[in-house]
Design brief:
NADH dehydrogenase (ubiquinone) activity; about 70% helix; transmembrane helix; mainly alpha; 13 helices; transmembrane
């Protein structure tokens, strides 16, 4: 049990370090998309830029808006980060007890709680912009969780198991992206909506909401929200790699595939304009819901 605890601590620490370099990768890719250099001054090729940013954020003074609800305002960034960290416990180490039987259910349970932190952030700030941003997040996340769960359910009919480890065992011969390419595309878009990433970043639409739900946060509060968001991006890449791209057959290949999906999410931010909000909701309820239900019926019919 103690070994499990130590392994989990190592995993969480290194996932946070991974977030640091993911932010550097994002700034580099966005730089080259916009025909300019990314961070390249701090350390070799800007390698230590994330650490200098962290020092800057954590040493800044932490302001509280006068009309904010003090305790919810203070604790909501910690809630956002904690949920993003806890969901990593489903990562299936081959030798750990934590790769338990109901890991997919645990993942669903934790991911469905992610909206609460953002909702409290927006409400506790007592700012019009942040309340609008948090309302958008709630509607968006609740909508896309429905299609997200149904699409994962399609894949569970292939494995007939709610253990994440089984996906690796079932993709030895052929990856699920070949068998279920429409489900992959829809799940990828659902993850973009779930993570509030471009083109679905309505919660922090700079053009109309300044910075959305986190407009009143600076210093360590902003850093926690930022870490939570980027941990979720890494986790989404892990889940997509696990479900569709063969899982962990070889560790190095697994991280290579994970890096490609994370890079695609970043490139999407650099290339696509923001979607319209009513179209986002129509896409979910009128297209994805019906399509995912049809896919479930199709895959069940294949099974029998």
């Amino acid at each position: 049990m103690f070994v499990n605890f130590i392994c989990c601590m190592f995993m969480l620490v290194f996932s946070l370090i991974g977030v640091a370099f993911l932010t550097l990768l994002e700034r580099k890719i966005l730089g080259y998309v916009q025909l300019r250099k990314g961070p390249n001054k701090v350390g070799v090729l800007g390698l230590f830029q994330p650490f200098s940013d962290a020092i800057k954020l954590y040493t800044k003074e932490y302001f509280f808006p006068l009309k904010s609800n003090f305790y919810p305002y203070w604790i909501s960034p910690i809630v956002i980060l904690s949920i993003s960290v806890f969901v990593w416990l489903v990562f299936p180490y081959s030798h750990l007890i934590l790769a338990w039987k109901y890991s997919v259910l645990f993942m669903f349970s934790i991911l469905s709680m992610g909206v609460y932190g953002v909702m409290i952030c927006g409400w506790a700030s007592s700012s019009s912009y942040s309340i609008l941003g948090s309302m958008r997040v709630v509607a968006q996340s609740v909508s896309y969780e429905v299609s997200f769960f149904l699409l994962v359910l399609c894949l569970l009919y292939f494995t007939m198991s709610i253990t994440l480890v089984q996906f690796s065992n079932f993709q030895v011969k052929v990856w699920f992206i070949v068998l279920a390419f429409p489900a992959f595309l829809m799940l990828f878009v659902s993850f973009l909506a779930e993570l509030n990433r471009t083109p679905f970043d309505f919660s922090e639409g700079e053009s109309e909401l300044v910075s959305g739900f986190n407009v009143e946060y600076g210093g360590s509060g902003f850093a926690f929200i930022f870490l939570g968001e980027y941990l979720s991006i890494l986790f989404a890449s892990v889940v997509l790699t696990y479900l569709f791209l063969g899982g962990i057959s070889d560790f190095y290949l697994f991280y290579f595939k994970l890096g490609i999906i994370a890079s695609v999410i970043i490139v999407v931010r650099g290339t696509l304009p923001r979607y319209r909000y009513d179209k986002l909701m129509n896409l979910c309820w009128k297209v994805y819901l019906g399509s995912s239900l049809s896919l479930i019926i199709f895959y069940i019919s294949m099974l029998y």
